[in-house]
Amino acid sequence: QVHLVEFGGGLAQAGGSLRLSCAASRNIFTIGTMAWYRSTPGKQRELVARIHSDLNTEYADTVKGRFTISRDNAKKTMFLQMNSLRPEDTGVYYCNADRLTSNRGPIYDAWGQGTQVTVSS
After folding, report:
1. How far apart are CA 50 and CA 114, in angstroms?
2. With bands split at pLDDT 50, 70 and 90, how would you rate the model's confidence at 90?
3. Across all residues in the chain, what is the average pLDDT?
4. How far apart (Å, rounded) are the C-alpha atoms in residues 12 and 23?
5. How far is CA 73 from the centre of its chain?
6. What torsion, rounded to 10 degrees, do the Cα atoms 75, 66, 94, 98 define?
7. How does residue 28 score in pLDDT terms, banded at 50, 70 and 90?
8. Is 35 in contact with 51 (CB distance < 8 Å)?
9. Do 71 and 55 meet the contact criterion of CB atoms below 8 Å apart?
10. How far apart, in whole angstroms, are the C-alpha atoms of residue 118 and residue 10?
11. Does residue 77 contact residue 69 with C-beta atoms inside 8 Å?
12. In sequence order, what are the residues at sequence separation of 6 or more whose Cβ sits closer than 8 angstroms to the Cβ of residue 86?
């Protein structure tokens, strides 16, 4: 079953902005830590930003000061505001969550399908 879905990927120019969203399905009750990862050619999947249930955040050095991660626990959604985009930000961005609960029981880990972000110079 699909538990997480990303929205908001697309094409932006260098210096521009995009806002990504991740929504949990209706049968998800609670979520622990959520994070954004990205996959780029020639690189392993890397952590972009992480946000805990208490709203404590962590950022990769490459995006710190440019990206902002947030979440709305009531709506079971997560966001990534990406400003001052660079071509090297290009990649597929994935929503991740751990320690979920659902109407079918606990879920250890879940991933979205990914959304493409392309930044042109």
Report:
1. 16
2. very high
3. 96
4. 22
5. 15
6. -60
7. very high
8. yes
9. yes
10. 6
11. no
12. 14, 119
Give the pLDDT of residue 111. Answer: 96
With 0-12 CB in 10 A as exposed, 13-18 as middle and 19+ as buried, what is 48?
buried
Question: Residue for token digits 């929503």?
Answer: 95
The structure tokens listed for 62 are 């490459």
CA distances from 109 to 8, 11, 50, 96, 97 (A): 22, 29, 14, 7, 6
| Nearest-angstrom CA–CA distance, 69 and 31 | 15
CA angle 44, 83, 95 (to 5 degrees): 45
36's tokens: 């954004």
Question: Which residues, listed in sequence order, are joined to residue 111 by a DSSP beta bridge?
Answer: 96
Residue corresponding to tokens 């930044």:
119
